[in-house]
Amino acid sequence: MFSKIGHQIQKMIAPMALATLVLFVLGLIMIVVPQGYADDGTFQAVLNRSGLYSLPHAATMTNMNVHYGIRQYFFDGGGGLTSQVPFIRLAILLNQIFVSRTVFDIRSLGLVYFAIYLGLFYLLGNAMVGHGRQLRHYVQATVMTVAFGDSAFLLYFNSFYGEPVILLSLMAIVASVLLLVRRQVKHAWLLVLLYIIGTATLILLRQQNAVMAIPMILVTLGLIGREKTRQLRFGWFALAVVVGLFGIVGQSQSNPAQDDLDAYQSMTRGTLLFDTKPEQSLKDGNINPQFAILKGTTYYQPGLPLNAHSQTMQRQFLDRFNTMWLFQYYWLHPAQTNQLLNLAATNAQILQIKSVGDRPATMGKTQHVTQWMTLYSSLISSFFPTRFAFYILLAIALGLVYGFGAFYGYSREQPELVVKFYLVLGLMVISLITLIGAILLEGDPNLARRLFPVGTTTVLLGLMLFTDSANRKLFLPEDPKR
Question: Are residues 136 and 243 in the same domain?
Answer without folding.
Answer: no
